[in-house]
Design a protein that fits this description.
This protein is α/β, with parallel strands linked by helices and 293 residues long. Helix content is 31%, strand content 20%. The chain has one domain (3-289): 4-Layer Sandwich (Purple Acid Phosphatase, chain A, domain 2). The chain has helices at residues 19-31, 47-54, 83-97, 130-136, 142-146, 155-159, 166-185, 215-222, 227-235; strands spanning 3-8, 36-40, 62-66, 101-102, 116-120, 191-195, 242-245, 252-256, 259-263, 270-278, 282-289. The strands form two sheets. Strands 4-3-2-1-10-11 form a six-stranded mixed β-sheet. A five-stranded mixed β-sheet has the order 5-6-7-9-8, with helices on one face. Strand 8 and strand 9 (259-263) form a beta hairpin.
Length: 293
């Protein structure tokens, strides 16, 4: 069967910039509706999450999402809740209200044995940079746990509030995604993986070419993904032709074995939309800026 899937990420609705760009992206989709729309996380903090979903609620297509790290931030005025409750209960309920399938609770199966969509927020356990950090900056490993850079602090340390740690949550979501891949095999011939944090290293921040990366770069890399999900994808490569993600605000393409990977690459004031034509495998990009031009 032929399908057109539209994938975007990092809409950051409610931020001081980007509203016009998101509006142009939504207008484009209304003019040319895809068969499936997928939002790959960082949609909006607090009430802005629902407001973002409302922009797409009337699209006449299937819709799915994974949340991003910003989506599970708990603002100070919402201290009665924690990020795990938000991730497991409140965000799925919001997705359902606006007609979105919450991929972190299970795969989306498309009709006539089209590709299944399998997704996860994904998370980080520092494994992408831990060895190099220990080798080059042995006194600085504590920064991974405090999320303190040489200047400033990762906002996840300020706004992600839950009774577990990064390593535990990473193990939980990776195991869930692997179970979902196994479940999808029973009903589909192939699966497209959607994550917020990059699913494999080639879709993370570009590595500096001309010098060893500085400490803060290694810390950012440690906060971007994990090796465990890479291993899951390697074991399921023949079943997963594509993987899409967001998070880094860097548009990238890479491969992991037979898997073609794309980082959407939208930023605060510029949004990107990737269109996948199935089964040809053609991927095209569209950009929408705050300022027309």
């Amino acid at each position: 069967m032929s399908l057109r899937l539209a994938i975007t990420a990092d809409l950051h609705w409610g931020h001081r910039t980007g509203a016009a760009a998101v509006g142009r992206l939504a207008a484009y989709l209304r003019a040319e509706p895809p068969d499936v729309l997928v939002l790959a996380g960082d949609l909006g903090v607090g009430p802005a999450f629902d407001e973002c979903l409302a922009l797409f609620a009337d699209l006449p297509c299937r819709k799915a999402l994974v949340p991003g790290n910003h989506d599970i931030w708990i603002p100070a005025e919402d201290a009665d809740h924690d990020s795990l409750e938000l991730y497991e209960q409140r965000l799925p309920a919001s997705a359902a209200r606006f007609g979105f399938h919450y991929l972190d609770q299970g795969p989306l199966l498309l009709p006539e044995r089209g590709p299944a969509l399998v997704g996860s927020i994904n998370w980080y356990d520092y494994s992408w940079s831990l060895e190099e950090l220990r080798r080059r900056f042995p006194e600085e490993e504590h920064r991974l746990h405090s999320k303190r850079f040489t200047r400033g602090r990762h906002n996840d340390a300020n706004f992600v509030r839950w009774p577990i740690d990064d390593v535990q949550f990473t193990a939980r979501v990776v195991a869930k995604l692997e179970r979902d891949l196994h479940a999808a095999r029973k009903a589909a011939d192939q699966a497209i993986v959607i994550t917020h944090h990059p699913p494999f290293h080639g879709l993370s921040f570009p590595r500096p070419d001309d010098l060893p990366p500085p400490l803060d770069w290694l810390l950012w890399e440690g906060f971007c993904g994990n090796r465990a999900l890479e291993d899951v994808l390697k074991r399921n490569g023949e079943f997963v032709p594509f993987a899409f993600c967001g998070h880094t605000h860097r548009a990238r393409e890479s491969t992991l074995g037979p898997i073609r990977g794309y980082n959407v690459g939208g930023d605060y004031s510029m949004k990107r939309l990737l269109a996948l034509d199935w089964p040809t495998g053609t991927v095209t990009a569209h950009e929408f800026a705050d300022e027309e031009g």
